[in-house]
Specification:
With about 500 residues, the chain is an alpha+beta fold. Helix content is about 60%, strand content about 5%. The strands form three sheets. The chain has a four-stranded antiparallel β-sheet with strand order 1-2-4-3. Strands 5-6 form a two-stranded antiparallel ribbon.
């Protein structure tokens, strides 16, 4: 469809607005295919929004915004001059479009970008995670000080409210991922909602079945159907997607390519209707049949590997699990590890798997965040470090620290992995284990007391291992963490 003068005027006006308005334009020119705008304040330029316009690409070269237009550059430049009021200049006899062609990335670059991408998809929702984590800590403190009764309706209400951000994590991450991958935010949110739709959750629960404890006797096992319904004749894998992030991040990442593709093939007049429709027609089967079940199937594989490790490697098995636990939590697979604990508890007569690893992870992550908070000169980072350290150790909510500090700045994560790994080895030698289930935090250390005879050996060992892990992590983080590098990472976004 041939573009009209009005189309060029609309595009030019949009570019003027997205580079910060007329008053922010110092100079504008063009070459064979590009509009080149030099803004006074680069911080006002909305580059990601410019890329969403009807242009072939855009990037910052030094302090200049270069927007690739193509064969219509003369018409767009004329319209831009009128819209912005800048002085007209002669065209530059140059074509640099080759540098807008995506370069082939090495395997190292690809894998190295995975964690920063995940952090970018979660970091914007940290206020919600921190709010819920701190609320849990506040309620725990009030209950332990006997200001509120543990079974009071007030505590019950605040308890479920404080779990909302974590249960609906796919929805929150869907919104943040949409911004990262240039997808309409509503579509990212919708993808998260699909994974948590009550009807789908019920079908997944029916597919997985259930085991109901029976005090004084064997548990009652309710067999599952083995699927969560069918789509085009294919069975949908039943799994739990609350508290997970990878399925929705992968889905929204693919949606980014789909949205660009459909926006290219559909005219603007019907794009608002047809693009979302076809996105869903592709993503529903792809997400429910392939992408979302991937994490659940990886959980099953992980369970099998861990059972093998704990039965063959002795005290080295807790080291492997504890060191990897931050990344297991990152994927949400830690909720499925209870199967490992149950399989091995029959031999050890206590949980030597999940709780020692989770406790050590939380406290060492908290130590790393505390070290960053004490060392950094950045006020915002300092506040996040202190609140994350408190969240890690008191209510046992690790996500704010993981995504906001340790994963983002890397050296705190390395320190925490070393500290927790050494502590886990000592715990393995001591056969450290808990005797009941519960969240890993300061108030639940009593889980390491043997209820049968009141033996506190495991509690003492747990405290010893935690102290060792915390001290090592704190010292290493204080040495390894550099504020200058953190500033550079923050500047990159």
């Amino acid at each position: 469809m041939k573009k009209t003068e009005k189309d060029f005027e609309q595009l030019a006006s949009s570019i003027v607005e997205l580079v910060g308005g007329k008053d922010n334009i110092a100079h504008a020119g063009h070459c064979m295919t590009r509009l080149r705008v030099t803004p006074k304040d680069v911080g006002q330029v909305k580059l990601d929004e410019i890329k969403k316009l009807d242009v072939a690409g855009a990037q910052m070269i030094g302090d200049q915004v270069q927007i690739i237009i193509g064969k219509d550059i003369e018409d767009v430049y004329d319209a831009f001059v009128k819209a912005s009021g800048v002085e007209r200049t002669a065209a530059i006899d140059e074509n640099l479009d080759t540098d807008l062609v995506p370069k082939k990335k090495s395997a190292k670059e690809i894998f190295g970008s995975i964690l920063p991408t995940i952090v970018a998809c979660v970091f914007p929702i940290l206020p919600a995670l921190i709010a819920c984590g701190m609320m849990q800590a506040f309620i725990m403190i009030l209950v332990n000080l006997h200001i509120l009764a543990a079974d009071s309706p007030t505590v019950a209400t605040f308890t479920w409210v404080s779990n909302v951000a974590f249960y609906f994590l796919p929805v929150l991450v869907g919104a943040a991922s949409a911004k990262k991958f240039n997808v309409k935010m509503a579509m990212g949110i919708l993808m998260g909602c699909i994974l948590l739709a009550p009807e789908f959750v019920a079908l997944c629960e029916a597919g997985m079945g259930a085991t109901i404890p029976n005090p004084g006797g064997p548990p009652t096992v309710i067999p599952g159907t083995g699927n969560a319904g069918f789509l085009f004749g294919f069975p949908i894998y039943p799994a739990t997607y609350s508290n997970t992030i990878l399925p929705v991040i992968l889905c929204v990442w693919i949606m980014g390519y789909l949205e660009k593709f459909f926006n290219r093939i559909f005219p603007k007049s019907v794009r608002i209707v047809l693009t979302p429709l076809f996105e869903m027609l592709v993503m529903v089967p792809l997400g429910l049949l392939v992408i979302a079940p991937l994490g659940a199937r990886l959980s099953v594989l992980l369970i099998g590997i861990l059972i093998f490790l704990f039965r063959t490697l002795g005290p080295f098995a807790p080291v492997i699990l504890t060191v990897l636990m931050p990344f297991i939590v990152l994927t949400g697979m830690h909720f499925n590890l209870m199967a490992v604990a149950m399989a091995l508890a029959s031999v050890a007569q206590k949980n030597i798997v999940t709780h020692p690893a989770l406790f050590l992870m939380n406290f060492t992550q908290g130590a790393a965040c505390l070290a960053v908070a004490l060392k950094t000169k950045n006020a915002e980072r300092k506040a996040l470090g202190f609140s994350s350290a408190f969240s890690d150790m008191v209510p046992g909510i690790s996500e704010p620290g993981l995504y906001g500090i340790t994963l983002k700045y890397k050296t705190p994560m390395i320190a925490a992995m070393i500290g927790s790994g050494i502590a886990a080895f000592i715990g393995g030698l001591l056969n450290l284990g808990s005797y009941a289930g519960g969240p890993p935090n300061l108030f639940t250390l009593a889980l390491f007391i043997n209820p049968a005879n009141g033996d506190m050996t495991d509690l003492r060992n747990a405290i010893l291992c935690i102290i060792i892990g915390v001290v090592i992590t704190f010292v290493l983080t204080f040495v390894l963490y550099k504020d200058e590098k953190a500033d550079q990472l923050d500047a990159k976004g």
